[in-house]
Automatic annotation (TrEMBL):
<keyword id="KW-0378">Hydrolase</keyword>
<dbReference type="Pfam" id="PF00884">
    <property type="entry name" value="Sulfatase"/>
</dbReference>
<protein>
    <recommendedName>
        <fullName>Sulfatase N-terminal domain-containing protein</fullName>
    </recommendedName>
</protein>
<dbReference type="GO" id="GO:0008484">
    <property type="term" value="F:sulfuric ester hydrolase activity"/>
</dbReference>
<dbReference type="InterPro" id="IPR000917">
    <property type="entry name" value="Sulfatase_N"/>
</dbReference>
<dbReference type="InterPro" id="IPR017850">
    <property type="entry name" value="Alkaline_phosphatase_core_sf"/>
</dbReference>
<dbReference type="GO" id="GO:0046872">
    <property type="term" value="F:metal ion binding"/>
</dbReference>
<feature type="domain" description="Sulfatase N-terminal">
    <location>
        <begin position="20"/>
        <end position="221"/>
    </location>
</feature>
<keyword id="KW-0479">Metal-binding</keyword>
<dbReference type="GO" id="GO:0005737">
    <property type="term" value="C:cytoplasm"/>
</dbReference>
Length: 271
């Protein structure tokens, strides 16, 4: 159950009616306060399970690897109390480039949302998005605290990253699904903590998700297969290699799910 702000309920309903045959219609018609106990939220339960697993490792000396994969912040934009109330929409600073709207994206559905819901809708979107971020921040804190209690905090490689960002009103759009390649979608966090190997620093080299495998293999003392596409980030973070030797660019292509077939579809490819 989702409680929608009555100030733009009419606009949300209109979008829902227009997109009723689209699979993403509920993503916008369910944007608001999630009426669900915090303990029943998926990401809180994921943190619960991760903490439970870490606590079980307190009495083990064996190497371990845990993937803790959260869903938020992500559409549909809903968040429960107390996170929904944490950010006043009237006090939220809107993106400076929200009015820089390239015409080629004018019919993009992520642009239509902003156009129909207006500034009030954008503020509500950001209020919920920030609430989701704070919720995840708290869950990450719980996981790190559980890891610290094992006594193996400094002996563990910690990676925090994600697969994509969100336009968050930038260029008059929201969500990830645009035909664009803006920084709002592509410039995402990649934080690695391993005090045995790395000193605190900030790197500006171009990376992508394929770099994680060879980097973790290197840190685990394992050989990296020559066929691996990604770059090993360790030499750049330890100073063994100059950042000018790193990949200078990355790329992206749109792939459409094709669950009935063996191949993916590149919708923008001619032929």
């Amino acid at each position: 159950p989702v409680e929608i702000d009555p100030r733009f309920q009419k606009a949300v309903n209109a979008l829902g009616d227009r997109w009723k045959d689209k699979h993403f219609a509920e993503f916008i018609t369910k944007m608001g306060k999630l009426r669900l106990p915090l303990s029943q939220c998926y990401d809180v339960q994921i943190a619960d399970l991760t903490c439970k697993r870490l606590n079980a490792l307190r009495f083990s000396s064996k190497p371990f690897m845990i993937t803790c994969s959260f869903n938020w912040p992500h559409d549909p934009n809903v968040v429960p109390s107390p996170y929904y109330e944490m950010f006043d929409p009237d006090e939220i600073k809107l993106p400076a480039n929200r009015h820089v709207r390239e015409e080629r994206f004018e019919k993009n559905w992520s642009r239509e949302i902003i156009r129909d819901l207006g500034e009030r809708g954008m503020r509500e979107f950001l209020r919920i998005y920030y609430g989701m971020i704070k919720l995840i921040d708290d869950q990450v804190g719980r996981v790190l605290e559980s890891l610290e209690q094992t006594g193996r905090m400094d002996d563990t490689v910690i990676v925090f990253t994600t697969d994509h960002g969100d336009m968050m009103g930038g260029h008059g759009m929201v969500w990830k699904s645009t035909n664009s390649f803006y920084e709002e979608v592509t410039r995402v966090p990649l934080m690695i903590r391993y005090p045995k190997k790395f000193r605190p620093q900030v790197s500006d080299i171009a990376t992508d998700s394929t770099d994680l495998m060879p980097t973790l293999l290197e840190l685990a003392g394992k050989s990296i297969p020559p066929s691996v596409q990604g770059q090993n980030l360790v030499p750049f973070l330890t100073g063994q290699k100059n950042t000018s030797q790193a990949r200078q660019f990355t790329f992206s292509e749109r792939v459409r799910a094709n669950p009935q077939g063996k191949r993916k579809v590149l919708p923008d490819t001619k032929g």
